Every structure is written in C-alpha cells, then in structure tokens.
Amino acid sequence: MEPETQEKIEETVLEILRSSNMDETTESKIRKMASDRLGIDLSQPDRKQFVRKVVNAYLEEEKAKAETEPAEEITITEQPEEEGDEEEGRKRKRGGAKEFDDEGDLIVCKLSERRRVTIQDFRGKTLVSIREYYRRDGKELPTSKGISLTTDQWSSFKKNVPAIEKAIRKMDSRLN
Q: 50: domain range?
C-alpha cells in the first residue's frame, strides 16, 4: 500500500475514532465508515490489518492518557484479575472502556471461566460469538465449541428471549 494511501486511511480512521462513542463502536464499523468516506475498499487483508493497527495504537494511546489521570479501574467482566497476569491487565481499559481478547475481538462478557461472548469481524461481517476458550502458551484461544451469529441472527434470537425465558420458567415449574 502506498504511503499516501496509508496516511489518508490513518487520518480518517483517527478522525472517526475521536468522534465515536467507544462503548458502541467496533473496528468493523470504523473500517466501514472510513471506507465510505474515502471511497476505498478497506476489507482487503492488508488494508484491514492496517486499520486494526491504527485502531489498536489509538486505544493504547487513550489507555496511556487514562493512566495519567486518577481514576478507578473498571472492567466489563466480573471475573477477578489473576495475580501477575500482565496480559489481562494490558487489555483492560480505564473508565468503562472495552476489553479485547488475544485475537483482537471485543469481549462483551464472560459467562464463566472458560465461556465468553465476543463481537468480531469475520470477512467483513460482524458476528456475535458465544464460545468456549482454552489456554495455550499463555494465550486464550477459542475452541470449536460454540456458535457465531450474524447480526440478523442475533436480532432474531434477542426478539425471542422472552419466549425462551417463559419456556424456562414453565420447565422449572414442572421440575420443582
């Protein structure tokens, strides 16, 4: 990629990041907005990787700024941080910012020690993944046990949560 193109992409991505609500945005959304503004396809692997690099650099910079301000550290997950786990500490952000896994996917919540819900970009599509993880060489990696839902599938699931909860209550009342 030409340095001039890289510079345009970086400027646009940073401009979008600065004006975005970091609680609601994803790397995929940033990339799509930048692609629209620039009229450049940013889903190509080298460009996608470059955007990820710019986003990560921005997040690290924001984290460094937050560390100079006195603020209580808040995490999205309810899991206690293990002693000496520098990798986890590095991923946590201050002031309610987000936590990312070793693959760069947004961790929405941890359902248990080994299960979590993440938001990821896969081939230009946003996916909600509910998956089990395992540890190897100090990294947490996803297993094949789980499911990834497109945003449409997630919306359909979400609309049906009340019916699922009703069925659970009915089943519980039968068992008790």
A: 1-70
